[in-house]
Each structure stands twice: as C-alpha cells, then as structure tokens.
Amino acid sequence: MKAVAVAPGKVILYGEHFVVYNVPAIVMAIDKLVKVSASPREDGSLRICSDLGFACTYEDSEVKPLMGGRKATKFLEPVRIAAKTVLEHFEEKKGLSIDICSTIPSSVGLGSSGAISVATVAATSKILGHELDREQIWRFSLQAERHVHVNPSGIDPLVSTYGGLLVWRIQDDSKPKKINRDIEIIVGNTGIQRSTGKFVSIVGRKKAKRVEGISQLMGVMSWISNLALKAFREMDLATLGALMNMNHELLKVIGVSHESLDRLVEATRKAGALGSKLTGGGGGGCMISLATSNKKAAVCKAIEESGGQPILVRKHNAGVRVWLTKS
Fold first, then answer.
1. 297 vs 17, which has greater pLDDT?
2. pTM reported for the whole predicted model
3. Where in the sequence numbering do the catalytic residues fall?
4. CA–CA distances in Å: residue 260 to residues 8, 202, 253
5. What are the beta bridge partners of residue 9?
6. Which residues contact residue 318 at a Cβ distance below 8 angstroms, ignoring those fewer than 6 apart?
7. Correct CATH for 184-314 of 3.30.470.30, 3.40.190.10, 3.40.50.720, 3.30.70.890
8. 178: pLDDT strictly greater than 70
9. Quick one: fold of 2-179+320-325?
C-alpha cells in the first residue's frame, strides 16, 4: 500500500515580496502539478527520490546521497523536513520511501518547493494512517518552506493546499478568500534558476534599513492589489493588465527584477499583452502575461524570440489531493 498526493504550483499575479509585510497578494494555483508517493520501509530509514535525478537515504542524523551528490542533499532537504515534521508530530518512527514526480519547473518562481512540501506532508500523514485538514497541511509544510525561502510569507504552500484563485494577507492566517473567476495566463520562463530566499532577504534588509521610499511602496502595492480585486469581480481585463504593469515597475524599484525578465516583459507588451510582470522571487525565473485570445499566439512568439519558454497555464481549483492505492 502507498499514499499518493498531488499538489499544484502557482503564479503570483499581484503582490510578491510585499506580501511578506502584510500587503494583500493575489495568487493562482496552476495546472502544473507535483505528485508525491509515500510507502513504508522495513529498515526504518527514510529514502527520498526525485525524478530530477536526486536520491538520498537518511538514517538517524546521517544522510547518504544515492544520486546527485551534494546537489541531491541540498535539493531534498526540504522534503526530509516536511516528512520529519509529520513523523515527529505523530510520534512515529517508521521507515518511509518518498518518490517525487513534477511537471513544475524548479527554482523559477512557480511554487515547486511549496507544492512538493504540501504533497509530502499530505502523503506522509496518509500512509501513517492520520488525516490532516487543509490548515494542518499548510502549517506543517511551512517548516520546509522556511528552510528554502528564509522568511516566507507562506503563500506558496497556501495556494498549493487550497487551490483556486486567492487573495490573502499574512494577518488572514490560514483563511484565504477565493475569487470565483477563471483566467488564463501566459508564463515566460527565462530558464534562469535562482533562490527566492536570497531576494526576500535583500528586500528585508532594505526595509530594515528604512531605505527611502520602501514603506511608501508598500502602500502603493496594497492599492494595486485592492484595485485588482475589484477588477476581477468585474472581469475588467484591461485594468488587470495595467495593474500588472504597475506591479512590475514596483518590483524593479525594489531591486528584484532581472534583465532577462525585463526583456520578456517589454517584448510581450509590444506584442499586444494587456499586462506583463515578473512572478515569484525575481532575479530570473518566470514572468507572466495577460492577453486577449487573439493576442496569445503573438505573445508566446515574443517570449520565444526573446529567449524564453512560453507556457500557457490555467487555474487549478482542487488544491492538494491525497489517496491510498496498492503499491
């Protein structure tokens, strides 16, 4: 018997970085998924394997890379933390094999680590015979996210847990508000992997040092998110696009964009996108565009011609799902 959990990735439409400081963010779960399988082991060890070519075995405090060397140890550490969090909570000392398959590109701002953490928590608890509600899954997965992102807002595992299109602030705790609208987004992947935690820390240091204008920008971002929420209710795509453009400019001002992102943003706007911006941590990774149906092909072509990979994504409503199956 094994437990299988599936969780979606995400795009942040408005408010990344600012959400860490209680500014409202709007985020959408996407139809790019992580699947995590968990099954018992007789030897009492924890074995984790990823389809990216990484595998490690953990016995007590010792880690043994099986594939991928040091990179495997680093990449799989959040998965170990997620599984260990569940094991310790339920005071279990059982061995587990955890296998990860993903269609979410890694380290480019599409919520891969958050989705893996969420799916790992869900699958681990299920195979141990314990049922977790969505709030518990989110809270347990935050332990792994803190390892990856240093000072995460928690929005990545939140949207992977609940699914859909959400508006959320940190003070809302585990209670996101769903926006009952459907939207398609074109993602442009620069292919540049980077650390979200690094850029969260950069913004944090600027705020701590009271760099001129940072606090005022928080207020502007809050205004943008609230206007976007109103525009979603009215499905005013032109306004949603204009607000994306404004959001990107704020992210450039706080120093988290990158020339590769700016190049794709500019090219897609020229190709007819209603709005374009980076999504996620910045410094590389992905950008997003909102476009009408008759402009989507041109926007995708602009991304390709500017050195990126276009990916059309849709809203994924289900959030994390977990079930038992025969091995």
1. 297
2. 0.93
3. 156
4. 26, 19, 16
5. 30
6. 8, 163
7. 3.30.70.890
8. yes
9. Ribosomal Protein S5; domain 2 (3.30.230)
